[in-house]
Amino acid sequence: MPDQEVICEDVAQAKYRSKIDLTDAYEQVHVCIEDVKKNAFATITGTFVSHVMWIGDCNAPATFQQLMTTIFHDAIGCSMHVYLDNIFVYSNSIEEHEEHLCLMFERLREH
């Protein structure tokens, strides 16, 4: 049987793996302007509203997961997995891994 390129099917089988934890990722998602009033919170100095999503907001994890799935829809299961604010990139060669990481960083910058 001729040598065939081994396709990496999962993180555990990959020779090269990276885990990226997106710090303050939820806070980078803007709330629709008409929904900002629903995002009010009280402090000892008054009531404020937030124009960004917080991790404790109702449906924030599901919203963020849907956003990540939409951004990386074509790469999930091929070269990465996304779970909330964690991205797992995996590859069989270092060159391939660099390409996958570049793709991920480009998409994050774009969105």
What would a concise description of this structure say?
The protein has 111 residues and is an alpha+beta fold. Helices cover 26% and strands 22% of the residues.
Record field, number of beta strands: 5
Shape: elongated
| Percent helix | 25-40%
User: Over all CA atoms, what is the radius of gyration?
Assistant: 18 Å
Biggest sheet layout: 3 strands, antiparallel
Number of helices: 2
Low-confidence stretches: 1-6
Show the helix and strand layout.
Elements: E1 16-21, E2 40-43, E3 46-49, H1 60-71, E4 80-83, E5 86-91, H2 94-110
Antiparallel strand pairs: 1-5, 2-3, 4-5
Tell me what you see in this structure.
There is one protein chain. The chain is of the alpha+beta class and 111 residues long. Helix content is 26%, strand content 22%. It is built from two helices and five strands, in the order βββαββα. It has helices spanning 60-71, 94-110, and strands at residues 16-21, 40-43, 46-49, 80-83, 86-91. A three-stranded antiparallel β-sheet has the order 1-5-4.
Keyword list:
alpha+beta; 5 strands; three-stranded antiparallel sheet; 26% helix; 111 residues; disordered N terminus; two-stranded antiparallel sheet
